[in-house]
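Q: Convert this sequence to structure tokens.
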Amino acid sequence: QVHLVESGGGLVQAGEALKLSCAASGRTFSSYTMGWFRQAPGKEREFVAAISRSLGLTNYADSVKGRFTISRDNTKNTVYLQMNSLKPEDTAVYYCAARGGVQALNPLLYDYWGQGTQVTVSS
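A:
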């Protein structure tokens, strides 16, 4: 069982940066692939980034590649999403998620979810 809590969302201007954090409970954080997803109003939840369990291999959606960076600190049971050069189209609720398998883009394959944090980018 993993309990996830996101933080770090807020309102920023286009071009600015934000760093999201997701703190996980439990002693087996390092055994989970971690992902970030987002959901804008009226849209489906979409994959943003994922990071593997121990090697730290990463994967990004094309829309954020080169602007966002996912990282994890297994000693702190935390995964991060550094978001640079934010655009209005990045506005969404951002969720972190955990799964026991390898990286996946499909949100249905993730087992545990946080409550989400709102990111709003004004133009």
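The chain has no helices and eleven strands.
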